[in-house]
Amino acid sequence: MRRVLSPAARPDDDTGPGRPGRSDDQERERERERNQDREHRDGHGARETLRTEFPFELPRGYVDGSGTVHRSGVMRLATARDELIPLRDDRVRENAAYLSVVLIARVVSRIGTVEDIHPGVIEDLFASDLAFLQDFYRRINAEGHTRAAVTCPSCQESFAVDLAGGGRPGES
């Protein structure tokens, strides 16, 4: 007659430390092997994270109803939905140029202390700030970075600047 052991009574059970037939050293070794397997599957041993929010500094700034100027803000990566929904907007259907206003309003999450960003806020930006945000949108969504190549007007030296940086051009 054959005797069948329950899972709890099997000496080779590897469900945790303290089980009969399994030492703590063996359990640690198994855990180390599992971690190595996970690292191998991940590719580099560390989980890759995707940066989805990018800070920016407007060249002029948004002036709210009380006269306060807001310059720093945050833009997030656009989704397919962000690019599709504005196409159903009547204002965009009437004037294709309005697409960028609606799109920018969807992906900018904050300008200064203003967190309710809607097309009306974007409409009230200075033209240079809107152009900056359009370029910033293109850089983070198409190119994946916020750097721009520039040339010094005085010495003609070329260098890269980070458009998301906190300082203003010319400041150290």
Structure, described:
The protein is extended. A hairpin with a 5-residue loop joins strand 1 and strand 2. The chain has helices at 24-42, 80-84, 90-94, 99-107, 119-123, 127-143, and strands spanning 53-63, 69-76, 108-111, 147-151, 158-162. The strands form 2 sheets. A 3-stranded antiparallel β-sheet has the order 1-2-3. It has a two-stranded antiparallel ribbon with strand order 4-5. The model is unreliable at 9-16 and 166-172 (pLDDT under 50). By secondary structure, the chain is α+β, with helices and mostly antiparallel strands.
What integer value in Å does the Rg equal?
Answer: 27 Å
- Specify the helix fraction band: 25-40%
Topology as a string of helices (H) and strands (E): HEEHHHEHHEE
Largest sheet: 3 strands, antiparallel
Structural class assignment:
alpha+beta
Strand order of the largest sheet: 1-2-3
Unreliable stretches = 9-16, 166-172
Shape descriptor reads: extended
Instruction: Give the strand tally.
Output: 5
DSSP strand content: 15-25%
Number of DSSP helices? Answer: 6
Task: Determine the N-to-C terminus distance.
Answer: 85 Å
How confident overall, as mean pLDDT? 80
Pick out its properties.
172 residues, alpha+beta, 3-stranded antiparallel β-sheet, two-stranded antiparallel sheet, 5 strands, 35% helix, disordered C terminus
